[in-house]
Amino acid sequence: MKKINFLPLVLIVMALLISACGNNNKGANTSNAPAGGNEANSGKADTTAVATLASVKASGKLRIGTEGTYAPFTYHDAAGKLTGFDVDIATEVSKRLGVQPEFIETQWDGMFAGLNSKRFDTVFNEVSINDDRKQKYDFSDPYIVSKAVLIVSEDNNDIKKFADLKGKKAGQSLTSNLTQIAKNNGAEIVATDGFNQAIDLLTSKRVDATVNDGLSYLDLKKQKPDAPIKKVDESSDASHSAAVFNKGSEDLIKEVNKALADMKADGTYLKISEKYFGADVSK
């Protein structure tokens, strides 16, 4: 009678048992693990939800959307450092909230999309308050007041007021409220990334004019008094700018408003304002 070797059979059975135990253990660990992105279970701030005071405190930072190309509000100095009026204001607000500012630079035309997708907690970028934006977003208390100005080349004598824009090319950011002024006066809009590009197009005679921020114009003329441009008209209405938040950030906005009020009360705001404009631009 032939002798049967049972050793290979025993080894196969043992391997199957070990594999089954391993699969059972893996399933048990998975079921007990905290759900991904769950702030309560993971101990980490959820950066995909609407920013609240609690979430900002938990992360230890305020994520701020800004251009970085819009002097004197948000730009890079000669050393390449991000600076500007809005940058200084947002930095001081963050300090008073007890968190670090994290600036995320984005072109103006993508700024609101970044806020919508929760890439930012807020935007500090001289954003004007208007009815359309108030339907979708919440604002802090205004911290800057400015007027729209009509800027042309210094040798342009055809455009003297906003109404003269009819049929002329105006360099504008497509989502800026200033663009609407140019459109309302019949201008042909040439899209730009921001103030600097609009001025470049103007000085190179690729556009006839730009409707832009009066404070930016004053800053440019202060920095470059020989720039071959001039202001020919100014809006009668002043615009009020503030930090922008997604709806649902009410408690965070309340603390930001408190920080802004305290800055104005203790002179910090005026110091920053005079640094860039030589005046109080909150009035």
From TrEMBL:
Domain Solute-binding protein family 3/N-terminal: 61-280
Secretion signal span: 1-20
The organism's place on the tree of life at top rank: Bacteria
SUPFAM superfamilies recorded: Periplasmic binding protein-like II (SSF53850)
Record keywords, A-Z: Signal
UniProt-listed InterPro entries: Solute-binding_3/MltF_N
Pfam families assigned to the protein according to its UniProt record, in alphabetical order: SBP_bac_3
Sequence intervals crossing the membrane: none
Record protein name field: Amino acid ABC transporter substrate-binding protein
Organism encoding this protein: Paenibacillus farraposensis
